[in-house]
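Lab notebook, design round three. We kept the backbone fixed and only want residue identities now. Task for the bench partner: fill in a sequence for the structure below.
Input structure tokens:
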């Protein structure tokens, strides 16, 4: 069945919208069944979705929760079963969606931020060891935009310092690193299933792991810390997924490869077309040994180009290209984190990506003529600036 028939396209003023959501006919049948039988929570769909997600990633366990933020937070909270104490530290990249830092705090830990590399957008492994203290319990790399973090180096540091690794794979469904699927390298991996992602449940999240005890802790944590019939052994969350969300997820897993392939085609097309703008713009790149699981296409204005990111964004948006800021340096550019006492300049690479960076869609509903439109808009912008 052609892609178009499988998707509901959001109504938007943009010619090149940022995101989309695919709802399959199978999902609609399952949703109707759930409503007819009134089995809307804790029914067969959540279990089936978990089994199918685990199978897709080749892991033993998958625990579905209500958001990607909960997936991050619950994965952190599992560490209390492994000797961690409240207030212990978890290392995270400074540049990521704010949810990563929030989740660490929500789980009762302190996020310790490490700068990223401008070219990869991901945590700089060479800066991790300096951030480790006696209270560090885990490293939480984020695979931003679906580009794998440097997992070999991160796993080696974790091993040396006896730390857990929780992958924030919210944006990296289907990404690969040296032949391994992203999400299968650390001790646990948390995915967001929010509407913009490759596998979506509209709102939702899921944690995968090969460790039975970790999976059981996650199941307990999503349901108020319950164990057995009515015993509460952990400080839990209320973070269950419902049947309607799981039904959408089951449908999405069926077309996972189709969505991933389309997004990869779009990403690689844009990477190639943007080569001619390399003098002015840094874009995400796929390196040897990795496969990006595309979330979006990042564009960072180089230094001394003679134009600002704001000018660039205002122009592309005026021409129908929807965009989002390339996140923020959480500790220095999100006022909610002022309590950490960090100051601008402490995370120069993350701050640069934020000040000079944006990202645009490469999702499954975008066709090549829309991507060509993006390219011609950028050409026009540079021409207007007297650059080429
Ligand atoms: C890197 C990262 N972590 C965590 C999240 C949180 O996911 P959610 O919005 O499903 O809570 C997101 C959201 O997409 C994200 O991009």
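Proposed sequence:
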């Amino acid at each position: 069945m052609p892609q178009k028939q499988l998707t509901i396209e959001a109504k938007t003023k943009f010619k090149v919208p940022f995101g989309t959501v695919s709802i399959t006919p199978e999902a609609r049948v399952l949703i109707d069944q759930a409503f007819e039988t009134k089995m809307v929570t804790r029914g067969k769909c959540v279990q089936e979705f978990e089994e199918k997600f685990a199978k897709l990633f080749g892991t033993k366990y998958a625990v579905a929760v209500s958001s990607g933020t909960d997936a991050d937070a619950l994965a952190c909270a599992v560490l209390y079963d492994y000797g961690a104490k409240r207030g212990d530290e978890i290392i995270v990249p400074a540049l990521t969606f704010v949810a990563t830092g929030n989740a660490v705090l929500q789980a009762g830990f302190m996020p310790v931020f490490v700068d990223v590399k401008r070219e990869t957008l991901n945590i700089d492994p060479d800066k991790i060891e300096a951030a480790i203290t006696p209270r560090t319990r885990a490293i939480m790399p984020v695979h931003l935009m679906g580009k794998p973090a440097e997992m070999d180096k991160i796993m080696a540091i974790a091993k040396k310092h006896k730390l857990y690794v929780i992958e924030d794979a919210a944006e990296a469904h289907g990404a690969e690193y040296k032949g391994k699927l992203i999400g299968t390298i650390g001790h646990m991996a948390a995915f967001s299933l929010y509407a913009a992602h490759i596998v979506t449940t509209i709102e939702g999240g899921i944690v995968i792991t090969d460790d039975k005890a970790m999976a059981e802790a996650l199941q307990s944590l999503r349901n108020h810390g319950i164990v057995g019939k009515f015993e509460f052994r952990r400080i839990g969350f209320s973070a269950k997924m419902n049947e309607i969300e799981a039904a959408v997820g089951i449908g999405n897993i069926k077309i996972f490869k189709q969505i991933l392939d389309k997004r990869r085609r779009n990403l690689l097309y844009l990477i190639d077309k943007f080569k001619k703008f390399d003098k002015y713009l840094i874009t995400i790149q796929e390196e040897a040994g990795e496969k990006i699981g595309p979330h979006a296409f990042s564009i960072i204005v180089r230094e001394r180009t003679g134009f600002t990111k704001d000018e660039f964004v205002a122009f592309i948006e005026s021409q129908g290209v929807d965009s989002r800021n390339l996140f923020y340096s959480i500790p220095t550019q999100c006022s909610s984190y002022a309590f950490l006492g960090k100051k601008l300049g402490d995370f120069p690479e993350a701050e640069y990506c934020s000040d000079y960076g944006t990202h645009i869609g490469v999702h499954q509903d975008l066709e090549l003529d829309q991507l060509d439109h993006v390219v011609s808009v950028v050409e026009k912008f540079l021409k207007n600036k007297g650059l080429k």
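Keep this in mind before ordering anything: The first helix runs from residue 3 to 6.
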